[in-house]
Amino acid sequence: xxxxxxxxxxxxxxxxxxxxxxxxxxxxxxxxxxxxxxxxxxxxxxxxxxxxxxxxxxxxxxxxxxxxxxxxxxxxxxxxxxxxxxxxxxxxxxxxxxxxxxxxxxxxxxxxxxxxxxxxxxxxxxxxxxxxxxxxxxxxxxxxxxxxxxxxxxxxxxxxxxxxxxxxxxxxxxxxxxxxxxxxxxxxxxxxxxxxxxxxxxxxxxxxxxxxxxxxxxxxxxxxxxxxxxxxxxxxxxxxxxxxxxxxxxxxxxxxxxxxxxxxxxxx
Amino acid sequence: xxxxxxxxxxxxxxxxxxxxxxxxxxxxxxxxxxxxxxxxxxxxxxxxxxxxxxxxxxxxxxxxxxxxxxxxxxxxxxxxxxxxxxxxxxxxxxxxxxxxxxxxxxxxxxxxxxxxxxxxxxxxxxxxxxxxxxxxxxxxxxxxxxxxxxxxxxxxxxxxxxxxxxxxxxxxxxxxxxxxxxxxxxxxxxxxxxxxxxxxxxxxxxxxxxxxxxxxxxxxxxxxxxxxxxxxxxxxxxxxxxxxxxxxxxxxxxx
Lengths: 268, 255
What we know:
heterodimer, A: Rossmann fold, four-stranded antiparallel beta sheet, globular
């Protein structure tokens, strides 16, 4: 996959990131081809969301580079970062809808802030996106009147309302029922293919990603433990990849937090 | 505690003051004369200002009554109870009106601003805004700050009006003082520019202080339930203390 740099929407090279003294990412490199859905998987707390934040420029790496469409993100000025963010859509873990605005106003917010479109056109665009996620008729509801799955779909409509070229999903399926999970998965695939997007999905939902993603990276112990199409990863001989994909307790990925030696001892 | 830790703890308030000052500059730097700034500010003025009106009016009325009661009790000893409107007017317009309105505003609106912004942070709404290339300082913090700046002087004027009404009800209605003397003393002894406007200018500063402290603590709250709780407490404590400190400073400089 590393040969396809010209067709890469996102190119990550040699990324090192610390949080305090703790090493989160250790020389991580990835290529995310244009038009594909790429999943970044791994156990909780391994640094998946950190990668998304490095892609959006919310965090700056200690070493290495993140390029989106050939532009290095970490060296962008505040103004060009704002401009760059207008071209990406993000679905955050809990949807993060604005609780004081109606569903309609939530989806309309990016259009109102970044365009001078007349009100009737804004109305049409918002209704179009709401219908696309199957939520026509909910425009006057407040976010607290929606179920978790519906809120996630409204957030998806809001994320794509500016027709971004790149979609980032942070745990889009966590905490949802199986029907909502399949619905979100189908919408992600349809949106990606219909709008010609590139999608990066951070998740630990192995089953859904096996069906949805074109390519997967698996992170463990701050490094990439394995990569490839999901079908290949399921048969991987790498013990860490195998443990994660099959959800086994025993293996190189530890259940216990790596505490400092000399801490509290059960036998003392 | 080591010496360096003690020095660090002693200097912490200075650091906080600096950070609050920088946050104010950042807010003012994001001020653009756009329609959305105006709409958001007016909306927030309704939420923090107009919605505080009832509590301000009730408190103002009773403060006016108790002020008249105490003043009449004290002045009666010298046979000067007809001076009550003078005492009530001066003390109310110069001190009690602006300070009590500011303290009530800090408790009613300052806390709600801090909790609302803190909760928006905890639920990822500020994050989402930043990722949509919308500056949360401009969209969320600034309108609330301007609304506080605008609301407190108006609420102070309302508090003063209702307090005078309270004093009238008690002095004339209950104690049976002469209404002509009451109003003429108020008219001749209490000055609009020195007494009334002096208090209104102070309340403008109080409004700015309270809303600045509230948006700062809300914006920098830890994204947890306890974090939002402590942001709310810090807001009411610090803004009340600052109101009283600034009241003394401004009064001693400008009187």
